[in-house]
Amino acid sequence: MGENYKNLKTAELSNWTGKAYIGQRKHVQTLQSFEELSAPGIYVLISEIEDSFQKKIYIGEADEVNKRISEHFKNKDWWSDFVVFISKDANLTKSHVRYLERELYEIAKRNQTTIETVNANTPPGSKLPLSDCDDMKDFNENIIFVLSNLGIIDFTKKKVTEVKEDMDQERNKDTVFYLNVPGAKGEETREAMLVVEDGAYRLLKGSYIRKELVNSFSSHNYVRLRNQLEQEDFFILSNSGSFFELAKDVEFTSPSAAAAVVRNCSMNGRREWKLKSGMSLDEYENRSSIENLI
Description:
This protein is an alpha+beta fold and 294 residues long. The protein folds into two domains: 2-149, no CATH class; 167-293, no CATH class. Helices cover 33% and strands 22% of the residues. It has ten helices and 13 strands. It has helices at 2-5, 28-31, 65-75, 94-109, 130-149, 167-170, 221-231, 255-263, 269-272, 281-293; strands spanning 9-11, 18-24, 41-48, 55-62, 81-87, 115-117, 177-181, 190-197, 200-203, 208-210, 235-237, 243-246, 250-252. The strands form three sheets. The chain has a six-stranded mixed β-sheet with strand order 1-2-5-3-4-6. A four-stranded antiparallel β-sheet has the order 7-8-9-13, covered by helices on one side. A hairpin with a 6-residue loop joins strand 3 (41-48) and strand 4 (55-62). Helix 4 (94-109) packs across helix 5. It is elongated, with a radius of gyration of 22 Å. It comes from Paenibacillus agilis. InterPro entries: DUF4357, GIY-YIG_endonuc, GIY-YIG_endonuc_sf.
């Protein structure tokens, strides 16, 4: 059975009761031999998306997580990898894993630029005592830490936070970056807005999005992402036929990805996003790095 274990990995963190099993479809049968996996757990099925910067994932939970993965092996052929999370002290209950499933799903849905979730429905979650909620939030933060730091899934937004309606009024206008968005011939140029928060690049609600597709961009990796955002109603009609407006903030891992979605063409976002002073994002980040070293 040694060959079946090849490349099957586990991950643990100090002072954490959780444990992750990280493997591929070929390891599914092997999972059935681990007694600790015949217990409540949360899991993620993962597939690389060809010509995309996203990963397709399915998030689930089960009373006996190894058996559920086996069922998915028979019924779902799109996924290539999995990650299973359990508790080493067997203290996770059905209610706990249902809570974790909903929390992780909500975070994934806030990461449309790196993740495509294929769950047919939003997980129902569960009601827990306040003390258990705090414990599960800590558990879920460790799940995100493992997935992010092992390079399994790229989360631009690590935590679930409520977005305030007046957030744009609270932002420091001195650190908003702008990108000119050309319209049709003779039409006024509009602007898109970007801020850098916690290592992610947030394209702001109200930004203008160019409608016209540049031919050279039609086969670019970011086209699929742009189409997905449009299909999921992130774009709304503006008062001009040449533009959409962004209906809500979107986070990107790359300023070039945000620029490409806005302008419908490939460009160096670090050079093109600029403060009102004219300083480019590249210059701003380099200056910030130097200041941190002083």
